[in-house]
Amino acid sequence: MPIATLKKFLDDEHIQYVVISHSPAFTAQQIAASAHVKGRELAKTVMVKIDGKLAMAVLPASQKVDLDRLREAAGAERVELAAEREFRDRFPDCDLGAMPPFGNLYGLDVYVADTLADDEEIAFNAGSFTELVRMTYQDFERLVQPKVLRFAVGV
């Protein structure tokens, strides 16, 4: 079960969280509707390459990554979307496209949109297309230690 690794990590860190089961959904908007979560509180993970290195860009489901803004904010020369073939093997315990935003569990840097950091709680895919985890943003930030930058724009 994909959520096992994440749950063990959160339990070991004594984090309070809720698992939300929902009918299968594959886009951030479908997931938010199915799980009755506001789009701005649902964190989606977008895989990017920053100067050739895989990383996670995490932002509200209601927004999209502006690659130029991310490049400038990260002080990088080049930022591009990663192709699935470049990261599929990195997440053996997750459904492809449902990775939780815990890059620290997979050896990846995490960049969080400043607009998501404003939320008291966030929800995110727990490794499958049928489960979310909801927890405080403060706990997420403490565990993941992401770089909080301004790179998300409205859809």
Determine the CATH topology: YbaK protein
Low-confidence stretches: none
Q: From the helix content, strand content and strand pairing, which structural class follows?
A: alpha/beta
Backbone shape: globular
Q: State the fourth-level CATH superfamily.
A: YbaK/aminoacyl-tRNA synthetase-associated domain
How many individual β-strands? 10
Tell me the radius of gyration: 14 Å
| Number of helical regions | 6
Strand content bin: 25-35%
Helix content: 25-40%
- Distance from N terminus to C terminus (CA atoms, Å) equals 32 Å
Q: Report the sheet with the most strands, covering strand number, pairing sense and barrel closure.
A: 8 strands, mixed
N-to-C order of helices and strands: HEHEEEHEHEHEEHEE
Mean pLDDT: 91
- CATH architecture assignment: Alpha-Beta Complex
Which characteristics define this entry?
eight-stranded mixed beta sheet, alpha/beta, YbaK protein
Brief synopsis:
The protein contains six helices and ten strands, in the order αβαβββαβαβαββαββ.
Topology of helices and strands:
Layout: H1 3-12, E1 18-21, H2 28-35, E2 42-50, E3 53-60, E4 63-65, H3 67-74, E5 79-81, H4 84-87, E6 109-113, H5 114-117, E7 121-125, E8 131-136, H6 137-144, E9 147-149, E10 152-154
Parallel strand pairs: 2-7, 3-6, 6-9
Antiparallel strand pairs: 1-8, 2-3, 2-5, 4-10, 7-8
Task: Please give a structural write-up.
The longest helix has 10 residues, at 3-12. The radius of gyration is 14 Å and the shape is globular. The protein has helices at residues 3-12, 28-35, 67-74, 84-87, 114-117, 137-144; strands at 18-21, 42-50, 53-60, 63-65, 79-81, 109-113, 121-125, 131-136, 147-149, 152-154. The strands form two sheets. Strands 1, 2, 3, 5, 6, 7, 8 and 9 form an eight-stranded mixed sheet that branches. It is α/β, with parallel strands linked by helices.
